[in-house]
Design goal:
Helix content is about 25%, strand content about 25%. By secondary structure, it is α/β, with parallel strands linked by helices.
Length: about 190
């Protein structure tokens, strides 16, 4: 994620905005990193050169102290100075919907791992703290929560942290996904967040 400033896709506008928002401390180096899509009378290299020319300081394209990023699209240009990493993975919902049995921390970790693989979770739980933790990461759509698992014919897939079938009296007709089988859930990043 990058908080950005927006201007029209014109080099003069990019130069004005860049000079206003981007300051390089003395004795520090910088680089301009431009990318462009669409049809323009200039290239990405033109943006790099012209914007970089008006910024006071020393350019260092290999290992700069500060970077200015410019994403030029057809009509608008997005200028930013930081990239904030997210959890990574595929867009939520791109791999369909599955049920997530949510009783403990391991189940929460399993749900979060499946979300990273693009699965939208329908939480099956009455544990409010776990539901609230899952909601923080369920970005793009509202988390659906059920108190109990629906009839097996309605189940496409289920995920849980358990590594055995012991908690389920009968196997549902859907796919059972157990992403924690090969890892230690306590070592996984989401168990401490």
């Amino acid at each position: 994620m990058s908080p950005c400033y927006i201007c029209p896709s014109d080099i003069e506008e990019m130069k004005k905005l860049s000079k206003k928002i981007f300051k390089v401390p003395k004795k520090k180096t910088f680089a301009v990193r431009a990318r462009r899509t669409g049809s323009h009378k200039f290239t990405s290299m033109d943006i790099n050169n012209q914007v970089g020319y008006i910024i006071p300081g020393k350019a260092n394209l290999t290992d700069p102290d500060k970077e200015l990023f410019i994403e030029c699209r057809q009509k608008n240009t997005y200028i930013f100075t930081e990239k904030i990493p997210g959890p990574g993975g595929l867009p939520l919902g791109s791999a369909g919907k599955i049920f997530g049995l949510l009783k403990n921390q391991e189940d929460l970790t399993a749900c979060l791992m499946m979300m990273k693989r693009g699965c939208e979770i329908i939480a099956v739980s009455d544990k409010t703290p776990l539901i609230n933790k899952l909601k923080k990461w369920h970005i793009g759509s509202e988390l659906k929560v059920l108190k109990k698992l629906p009839k097996s014919k309605d189940i496409i897939g289920i995920t849980m942290g358990e590594k055995t079938y012991s908690s389920m009296r009968t196997r549902p007709d859907g796919l059972i996904l157990r992403p924690l089988v090969a890892i230690n859930p306590k070592a996984y990043i989401f168990t401490t967040k």
